[in-house]
Amino acid sequence: MASHDFITPAKMARGLGSAKTGTETHIRQRVSAIALIFLVPWFVYSIIHAMGGDLAEAQAWAAKPWNAILLILTAGAAFFHMRIGMQVIIEDYIAKSGTKSALLILNSFACIALFVTVALSVLKIWIGAGA
Amino acid sequence: MTSTSRADPRPLSPHLQIWRFHITMASSITHRITGTALYFGTFLITAWIVALATNAEWYSVIETVISAWYGQVILFLWAVAVLFHFANGIRHLLWDGPHIGFEPKTASTVSVFIYLFAILGAAAIFAATTWL
Fold this sequence. Notes:
The structure holds two protein chains of two kinds. By secondary structure, chain A is an all-alpha fold. Chain A has helices spanning 9-13, 22-52, 55-63, 65-93, 97-128. Chain B has one domain (22-131): Up-down Bundle (3 helical TM bundles of succinate and fumarate reductases), CATH 1.20.1300.10. Chain B is elongated and about 55 Å long. The interface between A and B is medium-sized, with 35 and 33 residues.
């Protein structure tokens, strides 16, 4: 211990891993989690009803303005949240830097592509219903 | 600081093989597993919404899958994963924000309740949608 007395905390921490953007990711993951606390119960309840009916009923449900808005918000929060979650898992378990980078890029692309796909599908149903 | 020399001096996570099982460890791992399951589950939900926006042919394919036994199994596991990740996620927020539930006994008890909530909750949802 004595030999460390004159070393500043910054010197002890430097070079031992990232201390750049971790806090931001931590907060983002929690803020999206708070959004999902409200959105997920609505989504689970709604999707059970929508799946119970036929195509026309499910489309009529998705075409209602509030449902369309909440669907896109749920998709946004969920894909945002799961992108960070998968990023952390990849960073934890994949040590090889090339593979890690490839998977991180794939994760980002997948989440963004899924969000755009859901958002456009909902918009199509909404506009198609003449809203 | 230890004297063992490693190329990468960052601290290592304890290895699973030398850890005694405890319920909070299990719920932590389950949080990751359910998170990953939900990640791939969104691919299926996206397929359902795309079918909703495209045509009746695709939608009937998805309806067939949902009503088949394997579709029901996937839906049940999805419900378990959602409920677990939801409840355990709220616990994470309580840990991080107001620092509630850190005592080992409380944490273990809450873990058991989250497992029960996830499984019984999914069973209740299935019972409700089948018989109501």
